[in-house]
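User: I'm putting together notes for a lab meeting next week and I want to include a structural view of one of the chains we've been expressing. I don't have a solved structure, so I'd like a prediction I can at least talk through. The sequence is below, exactly as it appears in our construct file.
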Amino acid sequence: MATWGLSRSAIYLDRERSQIAFNWRVLAQAEDKSIPLLERLKYLCIVGSNLDEFFEVRVASLLAQNTVDGQLAQHTTFTSMMERIDKECHALETRQYEVLNQDILPALSRKGIHLLRHTERTEAQRAWVKSYFEREVRPLLTPIGLDPAHPFPQVVNKSLNFIVSLAGKDAFGRGTAIAIVKAPRVLPRVIKIPDELTEKGQAFCLLSSVIHAHIGDLFNDREVLAYSQFRVTRDSDLWVDEDEVKNLRQALQGELQGRQFGVAVRLEVAKNCPEALSQFLLEQFSLTKDRLYAVDGPVNMVRLSELIDHVSQANLRFPAFSAKPDTKLAQKNIFDVLNKQDILLHHPFQPFQTVIDFIRTASLDPNVLAIKQTIYRTGMNSDLMESLITAARMGKEVTVVVELMARFDEEANINWADRLQRAGAQVVYGVVGLKTHAKLALVIRREEGGGLRHYAHLGTGNYHPSTTRFYTDFGLLTAHPKKAAEVNEVFIHLTGLTKPKKLEHLWLAPFFLQPKIIKAIRNEARIAREGRPGRIIAKMNALVDESVIRALYAASADGVKIDLIVRGACTLRPGVPGLSENISVRSIIGRFLEHSRIYYFRNDLQHDVYLASADWMSRNLFRRIEVAFPVLEKNLKKRIITEGLDPYLKDNQNAWVLASDGSYERRKVRGKQKPFSAQQYLMQTLGSPEDEAG
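Assistant: Thanks for the context. Below is the predicted structure for the 694-residue chain, given as structure tokens.
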């Protein structure tokens, strides 16, 4: 494979554009009229949330990397890249609001769900809104008239605010021309108007609309010339010098308070905001005009998710779906079951409750001596964490590796770490400079004969009960002596900072995972060169690591057939003659968020199957603690292939195929094909029979 004559752009797709393209695919779900209305609105909110994070993390990181002595480096490549990002993000956000205003809101109104602006409300509704404003909102507002004694206030990241232009003089005879009003964060953004004031259906209004309608009431004897809502997005990455601090948890607690006031990276205003006011705001936040987003609607579309929560019409949502309990575990001791066979769990089609029960049973079992677990994301309320606390209080040896730097979950993880320590658990925060992203739990139990046995859970997803209901993930419960013992070796490595032993089964990052992946890819290439079928199928969230991509290109040139299922960003350029003509890439966007990581290598019919916590990204392979683990039992291998890979390669409903130019085309039913959705198939195959899988 000769790639040295090709430019970098000919070999790799642009990561940022690929990430934005993912959001276009999510937006297509909001445009899909076959999807229930409230679910379409939810997809719009997801696009908004994804864009927020893209600016908070990715754009902020790019800007920070190109800052030299406080000034942006004027590199042509960087400048053109940022121009492309801004252009595509503007186009995406414009289309997002078009779908909201021209499609979804009118359709909801036809269903009796009305989101009313001030001009659309009846006299009775306006009177109620005015009363609500006076009673609930006005007491919490603190308008700031700007002058030397009242400087521009600190504006919290992603908070709702208003800028007001005033005529005349203030109470002291001075011409304070601009005021800032912060919307109270404690108030709901979507407010239900009483049913008795609505002729048909349900009526709602936004907090921003309420304040808009009565903003003049805040400035007695002053004429409001113009006003606009605005919202600023800030750099939200936390930075702690882990080599310098003595206590990472305490240092991170201090950083969390400052996250809300990081460097501004985007400004959103209302579409009708006067240019003078938007320019004033840009200057306050030290932003250039290309960072200005004038939107036709609420500046924080994510908060429209509150409307979804208010509406009770079941026909506007996906039909209810429940995971099917594992009958093998009913009324049985889970340790007895695991002594006979491994248990493979496929979430959300099978319940995460099995994992919670595994830890809860261990916490109460007098024969269990120790429990060890990694925590990346678990949420504010967690039965699983409560079980670990119970186990510690009962005197068991409980060790928890808490990743404090799990983005946007830092506060929850700090709180759990504190509670665990107070209960007597041993809590560590992973390895300095590396995030602990592996999903591992270990139970050490004394058996009847007096010996110790290890029981382990290894997964592709987080120990977060809420997300397991709408993320697809695999988990393996096993008492396999070698695999479970190797899980213990990983914990010893994490807590003792010892050099990890050579592991027979687990692929551990940052030490062995990348070399093992490259070796497995090259093995398929060798098999293909020798004239036998080489085959790789891999499923993940993102593929951007260049070392893996180069190995895949080389394998493709040797004749290996490679199918990649990559939900999000992918910088591999498929279908290029002489480079990647044997590689196909598809993305699945459906009801559930595809989150599982599966690596399949045919390996001369040995059918090697690995599940993993890691995507094929440099950060996962080199800057995180990650684990990939083999599934050894033939029946479980077959399940992973037939549930986790094959259906997604057949999907012609939710699949998007990546072209060599970086564009995605939605796969459609062709010829005599029948419509087939992988997620629909799995719900019908694995879900509870009493449910109507939608």
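A couple of points you could mention at the meeting. The two ends are 46 Å apart (CA to CA). The first strand starts at residue 67 and ends at 68.

User: Perfect, that's what I needed.
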